[in-house]
Design a protein that fits this description.
The structure is a single chain. The protein is α/β, with parallel strands linked by helices. The chain has eleven helices and 14 strands. It folds into two domains: 144 residues, Alpha-Beta Barrel (nicotinate phosphoribosyltransferase); 191 residues, Aldolase class I (TIM Barrel), CATH 3.20.20. It is 34% helix and 18% strand. Strands 13-12-1-5-3-14 form a six-stranded antiparallel sheet. A six-stranded parallel sheet has the order 7-6-11-10-9-8. It has a two-stranded antiparallel ribbon with strand order 2-4. Strand 10, helix 11 and strand 11 form a beta-alpha-beta unit.
Length: 352
């Protein structure tokens, strides 16, 4: 029996009919399958899937779902795979498929694509989580890509250790919901009054929803944080600093001269933390966002900046983690392009 549970294929809501007919597949795979069927040629092949970089695997359950639901006959295949979240090495086999090639030839584009996408998001998230540890990370990149990628990206981030995602779609595969803060737009809707907008949020939202409010609307994070904390008391869970990279917060201006003063910088966070603590609001958490990368988080942690939580967005979509599939055996005999060969992996587990 598998040592860990895999996601039910039904959760992915795949367009099975279109996938089976090759609508989303590279045309040469579709034509290859057509040729094999017309020639009544059904060689049993071993297809080996691997990446070329150190990473944290994502999308493997989604890839398995594609094979289960969209192959000609799942019972004809033997599939062996690692698990979502597994740490993988360059050239390590993550997925092995054995069976008549025509049964799954049309699916290569699909399973390689989901592995590439989800592994990229999961690996970037894991690196951020490791840099921030033990601080929490909130996954905030939904606005930086197409809405159709949200569900799988959210799950990849969750497996990688992100404490919260920003949309219900991102949280749906493990039965949770999105989290967030009082946004700039709501503050603007109440005339730029952060205290009023936060008070309305406290009045009309479920008390169980954590109230975290943005405090940079007027570019005066210290004063705004204090005003909100005084007005809301213990109902205020945290304040979020999101100062633009082109601005210097009012509290930082008198301290300029020996550090980069723009955006969310260590001195600004210390100013807010010191002001809140001085008035007895030690319980109010500080969330930072806006341009945070692995490197910036590491800098903050090395300097022991008093951050409680990091909100990370577009940097989680950067880079590439491509996967390759090769036929390496036919009817049990070695057959592979020059430079490739069968690479057994004892970590693989049979997929039922």
């Amino acid at each position: 029996m598998p040592s860990r549970k895999r996601l039910d294929p039904a959760i992915f809501h795949l367009p099975v009919d279109r996938m089976r007919e090759g609508y989303y597949s590279d045309k040469y795979f579709v034509r290859t399958r057509e040729l094999l069927l017309k020639d009544n040629h059904r060689p049993c092949v071993t297809m080996q899937v691997f990446g070329k970089a150190h990473a944290f695997l994502g999308g493997i359950d989604e890839a398995i779902a594609i094979l289960k639901l969209c192959s000609t006959e799942w019972d004809e295949l033997q599939v062996y795979a690692l698990y979502d979240g597994d740490e993988i090495e360059p050239w390590e086999t993550v997925l092995l498929i054995e069976g008549p090639y025509d049964a799954f030839a049309h699916l290569e584009t699909l399973y390689l694509g989901v592995l590439a996408r989800r592994t990229k998001v999961g690996t970037n998230t894991r690196r951020v989580v490791d840099a921030a540890r033990p601080k929490q990370v909130m996954f905030f990149p939904a606005r930086h890509d197409h809405w159709l990628v949200q569900t799988g990206d959210g799950y990849a981030a969750h497996i990688a250790g992100a404490i919260g995602v920003s949309t219900d779609a991102q949280a749906s595969w493990w039965g949770s919901e999105g989290v967030g803060t009082v946004p700039h737009a709501l503050i603007a809707a109440y005339g730029g009054d952060t205290v009023l907008a936060s008070s309305k949020f406290a009045r009309h939202m479920d008390p169980g929803v954590r109230l975290i409010t943005l405090v940079d609307f007027e570019n005066d994070c210290v004063d705004t944080s204090l005003q909100v904390a005084r007005a809301l008391g213990e109902r205020l869970y945290g304040v979020r600093i999101d100062t633009s990279e082109t601005l210097v917060d009012n509290s930082v201006i008198p301290q300029m001269g020996t550090f980069k003063p723009t955006g969310v910088n260590p001195q600004l966070v210390r100013n807010v933390r010191g002001a809140l603590d001085k008035e007895g609001f030690q319980f109010v958490k500080i969330v930072v966002s806006g341009g945070f990368t692995v490197e910036k988080i590491r800098q903050f942690e090395e300097e022991e900046v008093p951050v409680d939580m990091y909100g990370v967005g577009s940097s989680l979509f950067q880079g590439r983690f491509d996967f390759t599939a090769d036929v390496v055996r036919v009817e049990g005999k070695p057959v592979a392009k020059v430079g490739r060969s069968y690479r057994p992996n004892p970590r693989l587990e049979r997929v039922e």
